[in-house]
Amino acid sequence: MMESGFQDQIRQELRGRSAELNNLRSNGQSRKIFIVSKFWHDSLMDFIKEPAANAFDDKESASNIMNNNSTNPPFPGPIDNTSLCLSNGEFDTKKIYKKDFMIVEASIWSRLVEIFSCKSPVARRLSVHPITSCTVVLLDPIILERETSKETRIKTCSADWFVGDIRRPLCVVFRFVYADHTFVSYETNEVIPDTMTIGDYVKKFGNKIRLVEKAQVAEIQQIYSSSKNAKSKNSNNYSKSPFPHNYDTFTQANNISNNYSNNYSNNKSNYSNYSGNSSCSSSYNSTNSGYVSGNSSSNSSCLSSYNNKNLMKLKLTSTLQNLTFQIDEGSEIITVNPNSTKHSSSTYQIKHPNPVGLINNGNTCYFNVL
User: Coiled-coil segments, which residues (predicted)?
Assistant: First the structure.
């Protein structure tokens, strides 16, 4: 039998850490906890209570192990989780929190094992239900990777949660319109109904899921189908991910650029030439074309404007006294590449490169940002 002085010391120590032993709450992010049987937990809480509280709760003690000397409850025995496990030693997921078992923080677990010992520790995760905000113990935790157009978030979920339960909080975090977004499977881009449980989804599609706009579903599925067909012929034609923002738009843009340049050099009559004091205005719409090109002679000016929604790269070239100007909208850089050795290359940092005008006054060429 342990000395009463040692028991009093343990009682005082654990009493000061009661917040780690009882009524645990999740802070929104899942964390590791340990499970103990409710019977053992009740005996522990009776042991660390104040003597007056023990005397008052003598008849109502949940553990039902109090004796006539209620001010000196017995020292708890080893932590025994046998009643919580199946015959094969696995934890019985049908057990109910606060009825069959209780939980303690991982931060105090090593100390409890040091004092009382435990042969069969059971560790799980503590989280918050995404809809009810209730603290829940994840007996069958599933790690789900959720990809969005902004970033990827990882969440530990319960197998019995519904897919729709985690869609709304994710939309709130990234300020997406809930009604305009839906989940699709990561590989096949199949629309996932909100009523499917996360456990069923993981069994069928794996641990990755993608949140997309409903208006993009048809486009994403078409891209995925085209990518899948193309890979059977040439695995290097498309990006591995069918998600729109990962699609190799630069490759398409460069192909358009090369075709545009070839057509221009072979058939200059298809483009407008300007001379004298004339001016030209070209409009660009990103949904119709990839590039706009124009020529200007010595005393001319050219103004170009465009509507850039999904534009990845815009190139505007103008031949003016052997100078070539290239505008890269993506990096907001304007580069002057002269063909003559009399001038050196220059780079100008600007926030809004459009519209841009080229003004030639006699022997001096001005780069004018309007």
Answer: none
What's the total number of domains in the chain? 3
Instruction: Tell me: do 34 and 110 sit in the same domain.
Output: yes
292 has a pLDDT exceeding 60: no
Question: Residue 165 belongs to what domain range?
Answer: 141-240
Examine the domain organization and report whether 258 and 365 are in the same domain.
yes
| pTM given for the model | 0.54
CB 33 within 8 A of CB 106: yes
**CATH code for the domain in which residue 206 is found:** 3.10.20.90
* 103: its two tokens: 């939980």
Cis peptide before 242 (omega within 30 of 0): no
Secondary element (H or E) of residue 13: helix 4-15
* Assigned token pair, 102: 């209780």
Is residue 16 assigned to a domain? yes
Same domain, 361 and 279: yes
**Strand, helix or coil for residue 32:** strand
Whether 283 and 324 map to the same domain: the answer is yes
Q: Where is the domain boundary, 206, 240, 274?
A: 240
Residues 6+ away with beta carbon under 8 Å from 207 = 142, 143, 144, 145
Over residues 195-227, the pLDDT tens digits come to: 999 999 999 999 999 999 988 887 776 766 666
* Orientation angle between helical segments 198-205 and 163-174, nearest 10 degrees: 90
Backbone angles phi, psi at 225, to 5 degrees: -65, -45
